């Protein structure tokens, strides 16, 4: 598959990413937002590439580096927040839409972990470009106590690089849920994470998600993995989180057995990606029916 780098100037800074070059007219643009401590290559790990599968299925997929990751410029110190990232990404996707949107009905956001929290912020802003739906995974509303305590005990000031053993324990499920070698392949997408993001995901995010979600009117797809080490996982938490989206056109919530936090790298990643692409198709079709 052919991929290219993209870059968009936003308020004197640059948001970068990688994109496929195919994608049929009439299909929605897919914009993917990675999680904390990762970059745009999270969605392009060999054998588990959302970009490759999306292009093969007739979609153009753009995986953006969030501010401060990959080749994207960092936010200023006081701006490092989910809402600050959402503001810049909103503008970048607007520029992206102006460049690439001709012949497409709109944009569907596919997101992971902190990227999903930021996708909620973006959708709640009611962007001027045509947002058709959001697909969220790797995020919840309640973290285990040991994760909250560990994040709040981190030294302030600089980015944090999780040790490989901690990344393996928190981000991946039992060994029979992923192929040998995928953790090493995924290292190319790993980066240090700003401590501000780690504190917000266990602080301001759980406190404010319900209010943000209530303002979202587009369809929502939500997946929570069985072995996600960063969130409390059970049917009640799944239902509670999905229930926050009281104004959404519809909500499709699923507890995914047999996978961990980095669901995109597990043996079930293809199933996840196919469901996400099907969701994007449905968002585009239902949106066209409403507009028509």
For this entry, give a set of tags.
292 residues; alpha/beta; Rossmann fold; eight-stranded mixed β-sheet; two-stranded antiparallel ribbon; 10 strands; globular; hydrolase; hydrolase activity; Alpha/beta hydrolase
Give structural notes.
- Strands 1-2-4-3-5-6-9-10 form an 8-stranded mixed β-sheet, sandwiched between helices.
- It contains 10 helices and 10 strands.
- It is globular, with a radius of gyration of 17 Å.
- The chain is of the alpha/beta class and 292 residues long.
- The chain has a single domain, classed as Rossmann fold (3-Layer(aba) Sandwich), CATH 3.40.50.1820.
- The model has no long low-confidence stretch (mean pLDDT 94).
Principal-axis shape equals: globular
Total DSSP helices: 10
The secondary-structure class comes to alpha/beta
Which percent band covers the strand fraction?
15-25%
Briefly, what CATH class? Alpha Beta
Mean pLDDT: 94
Run of helices and strands: EEEHEHEHEHEHHEHHEHEH
CATH superfamily: Alpha/Beta hydrolase fold, catalytic domain
Rg, nearest Å: 17 Å
CATH fold field value: Rossmann fold
What's the architecture, going by CATH? Answer: 3-Layer(aba) Sandwich
Low-confidence stretches: none
Give helix % range.
Answer: 25-40%
């Amino acid at each position: 598959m052919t991929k290219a780098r993209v870059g968009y100037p936003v308020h004197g800074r640059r948001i970068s990413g990688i994109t496929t070059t195919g994608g049929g007219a009439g299909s929605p643009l897919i914009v993917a937002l990675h999680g904390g401590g990762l970059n745009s290559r999270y969605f392009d790990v060999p054998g588990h590439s959302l970009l490759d599968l999306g292009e093969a299925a007739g979609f153009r997929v753009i995986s953006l580096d969030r501010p401060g990751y990959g080749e994207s410029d960092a936010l200023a110190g006081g701006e490092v927040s989910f809402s600050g990232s959402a503001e810049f990404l909103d503008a970048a996707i607007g520029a992206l839409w102006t460049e690439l949107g001709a012949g497409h009905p709109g944009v569907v956001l596919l997101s992971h972990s902190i990227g999903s929290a930021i996708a909620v912020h973006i959708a709640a802003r009611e962007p001027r470009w045509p947002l058709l739906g959001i697909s969220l995974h790797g995020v919840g509303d309640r973290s285990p106590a040991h994760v909250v305590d560990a994040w709040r005990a981190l030294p302030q000031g600089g980015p944090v690089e999780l040790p490989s053993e901690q990344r393996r324990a928190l981000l991946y499920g039992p060994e029979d849920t992923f192929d040998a070698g995928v953790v090493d392949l995924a290292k190319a997408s790993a980066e240090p994470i700003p401590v501000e993001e780690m504190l917000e995901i266990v602080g301001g995010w759980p406190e404010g998600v319900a209010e943000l979600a209530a303002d979202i009117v587009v369809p929502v797809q939500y997946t929570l993995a069985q072995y996600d080490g960063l969130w409390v996982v059970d049917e009640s938490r799944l239902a509670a989180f999905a229930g926050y989206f009281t104004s959404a056109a519809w909500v499709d919530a699923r507890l995914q057995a047999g996978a961990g936090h980095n669901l995109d790298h597990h043996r079930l990643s293809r199933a996840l990606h196919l469901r996400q692409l099907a969701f994007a198709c449905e968002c585009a079709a239902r949106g066209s029916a409403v507009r028509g």
